[in-house]
Specification:
It is a single chain. It is built from 3 helices and 5 strands; from the N terminus they run E-E-H-H-H-E-E-E. By secondary structure, it is α+β, with helices and mostly antiparallel strands. It has a domain of 107 residues: Nuclear Transport Factor 2, Chain: A (Roll), CATH 3.10.450. The radius of gyration is 38 Å and the shape is rod-shaped. Pfam families: TadE.
Length: 167
């Protein structure tokens, strides 16, 4: 009579050509150990991804604020260069401020506009602080536009200075 295994030994069963123990093992398969790992990885990566997206938006806003400031400075400088005399400074500042309000009203806060003259050139400078998307990041924007005063310059004589006391 064939000998039967003792009660303390587990019987071996062949399945698919591999001998396995009929008793349950406490070892888990790798797939069971990794269950939920993907969700934890995403939970850890989400704040980093959100910060990267906010940084991209912040730098886009700074770039746009610089473009608005430059456009306003150019508009003010155009006005300053074409006004022959009088209150060209006030008109240039008013034009640049109106341009900022028209193109990007809440993009630069507070807006300061300065105008000046150096020899035969007039300039307008627009300054402000760009909108903050990320609370701890502050970007100051300053753009200046300058150019020669547009006036009649005779061909005879020095021909470099404006006539009429503006230069």
């Amino acid at each position: 009579m064939p000998s039967e295994p003792s009660s303390g030994n587990a019987r071996r069963v062949r399945r698919g050509g591999v001998a396995r123990s009929s008793g349950r093992s406490r070892r888990t398969r790798p797939a069971e150990r990794d269950r939920g790992a993907s969700a934890i990885e995403w939970a850890m990566l989400t704040p980093i991804l959100i910060l990267i997206i906010l940084l991209v938006v912040q730098f886009a806003m700074v770039f746009f604020a610089r473009q608005v400031a430059l456009a306003a400075a150019q508009a003010g400088a155009r006005t300053a260069r074409t006004e022959p005399g009088g209150d060209w400074n006030g008109l240039a500042v008013e034009r640049a401020t109106a341009n900022v309000d028209q193109v990007g009203k809440n993009l630069l806060n507070p807006v300061t506009v300065q105008a000046g003259q150096e020899g035969d050139e007039r300039w307008v400078e627009v300054r402000g602080t760009a909108v903050r998307v990320i609370p701890f990041m502050t970007f100051h924007v300053a753009q200046r536009s300058r150019g020669p005063i547009e006036c009649f310059r005779p061909d005879v004589g020095s021909g470099t200075a404006c006539q009429g006391g503006t230069g």
